[in-house]
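Title: Prediction job returns without error message
Component: structure pipeline
Severity: low
Priority: P3
Assignee: unassigned

Description:
Job completed but the reporter wants confirmation the result is attached to the right record. Sequence as submitted:
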Amino acid sequence: MMKIIFINPFGKGLGGGGYSLFKFAEGLALRGHEVIIFGLSKDNKYLEGTSIPKNLQLFDRFYVPRKFKGAARLDKIVGYLFSRFTIEPYLRKNRADFICGSLRTSAIAVSLLGKKYNIPSVNFVFETPPWMEHDLKERWFKEYKGSFKKSWERTKKAYLATDILISNSALSKKWCEKWLGDKKVADFVYPGITLSELEPIHVKKKKQVIYIGRLDPYKNIDIVIKALSAINNAPIFVIAGGGKEERKLRKMSIDLGVKCGFTGVINDAEKWKLIRESMFMVFPSSHEGFGMPPMEALACEIPCLCSEKPIFREVYEDKVEYFKENDAEDLRKKIEYLIKNPGYRNKRGKDGREYIEKGFSWKKSAEKIEKILISNLRKKK
């Protein structure tokens, strides 16, 4: 049995990457390992109704709401104090086999703490600047500046100093190794799904389509609203998630006469119900390290329309529908086809479910991570 520590990198929320990291930790705990997560609370909205394994321990910390100027800087101070007076005293008193993190703040902390307390460090790699620049182009240059740029530079140093890097897709592994030069990523581990959570739930279908994820500019949710505005008697567009684009999207939906339902952040039970009630999902993102919502759609036996991106081709092959990235007219045609062809929707949903059943589960993810970690321990002996 290993003792594995995770430093939560995603604040009060979780998002796709943070949710994956939690499920990786949970999967390792279910395999009998002692797992501790610092910085994640049991009352997190994403975890409502989740049964925490007995050998998975959560250490909560207060997060400063981003509702006033200087909140981010104040939260950074709170994070420093949490590390100084909660995480470090624990590390001084308790032996650990690995300390794990992901992305910027967490990756940097894990690299430093691992070195300070002689604990092998593990960082999960989801995305890197060269990959985001390739996908987002001018959008990336607008964001990649100031403190954001500096934090990525520090993250690169942290990754180079990390003992084990694990990516969440083959593309993520490729782009990370390109960014880091000689540093190798151990392997990639796909996120999974727990299909038993979906059984036996029966809901009545509604005339609605759904998007799940953050409401950020590069997610291109506005393209879906534009496409729906050109369809007579269009279905309701359910937008599940939170983010800085919400106000803009609300106004746009009113201006274009598209019926949208904004749910905010939802828990797993709410998520599964909304997906199953929907005719299909639309996932128009310009960049993803993996992209979990299409998997969740297929697991619920509904089709998913994805933007034409290599990452979706890698993960979902021909089991999702594709449209030209940022092309509202092409998306309109694909949406109309799915609306008018229920038999095709049903077939694609069933085929998608079979594909997910065969290839993806959190149990498989945890088993692969466990093998990587155990192999590293053996090398050190």
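Comment from assignee: result matches the submitted record. The chain has two domains: 3-192+361-380, 195-359.
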